[in-house]
Specification:
With 179 residues, the chain is mainly alpha-helical. It has 7 helices and no strands. It has helices spanning 4-28, 32-45, 50-104, 108-121, 126-138, 143-153, 159-178. Helix 2 packs antiparallel against helix 3 and helix 6 runs antiparallel to helix 7 (159-178).
Length: 179
């Protein structure tokens, strides 16, 4: 004769078997975290089944392996982003120093090239654009006017920009009268 306890125990065993079968499907689809949860519940209901214990152990190992891979991937991304910003900063400083050195040596075309490189990193930097325009003026390049027009659209004091425009046209007139 079956008692109520026997029936209840049989239902729990059946539920444990169903959880185990669902867990195996999740394990096969490589959803180790979900499979692990089902295997743990199945093991609570039906402890000591060797095949279940094997899947439970494998799920724990694979779940931890996935977590390690994800953590390593995130760490690598963070490291790469940090390296990128360090590189940008060093690149900026290097080319700014070169541009300033070329300006002092009156190698204005070289200075303009360096300022163009760093203006690509900081395209909204008014001081850099102004320095680029100054180097272009000294090099006698008409690009200076276009750059100064860009700077005029940026917020800030416009007096220096107009002074550089005037200097460009005066320099241009001096060069044309000398010829």
């Amino acid at each position: 004769i079956l008692t109520l306890d026997d029936t209840f125990q049989g239902a729990l065993e059946l539920k444990g078997e169903l959880l185990f079968v669902r867990g195996k499907k999740l394990f096969e689809s490589e959803d180790y975290a979900a499979a692990l949860k089902l295997f743990e519940k199945a093991d609570e209901l039906n402890p000591g089944i060797p095949e279940l214990e094997k899947y439970l152990g494998d799920s724990r190992w694979n779940n931890n392996r996935v977590k390690i891979y994800v953590a390593a991937g995130i760490s690598l991304v963070i490291l790469l982003v940090a390296a990128y910003f360090v590189y940008r900063k060093l690149y900026f400083k290097k080319h700014l120093r070169l541009a300033e050195m070329f300006m002092l040596d009156q190698k204005f075309l070289n200075a303009a090239e360096e300022y163009e490189k760093i203006c690509k990193l900081k395209p909204k930097s008014r001081p850099l654009k102004l320095q680029l325009a100054k180097s272009q003026i000294e090099a006698g390049n008409s690009k200076a006017v276009m750059i100064l027009k860009e700077v005029l659209k940026m917020p800030g004091d416009q007096d220096e920009v107009y002074a550089e425009l005037a200097r460009y046209y005066m320099k241009k007139n001096d060069l044309s009268t000398e010829a």
